[in-house]
Amino acid sequence: MPPAGPGSLFFRTISLKAAASGPLAQDPSAASKLRTMLNKRFALLGWLTWQVGKRFARKKARAAVPAVEEGRPNKGLIVSALAAVGAALFFWRRSRDDESRPGE
Are 33 and 16 a contacting pair, CB within 8 Å? Predict the structure, then answer.
């Protein structure tokens, strides 16, 4: 099987401008079929790229998270979560206080 390169059937693209001067110029439905085929091919390639990218991103994210050592939880994660909850409550309380005093 030949390698997938510029001559491969899967990656060969036909320019619609070049095709318009050939037999597709006389048959508009043939040009439409060609466009449909290319759109489906590009959609498949985009979908495959997205799937591979997601898998790669997941692996990278899992590798970046520090492991739990000796059964103890990650202290940095706990502190960060508590700080985020505290900040959310602080801003929620301030916005609620501002709504209760409409005259000021």
Answer: no
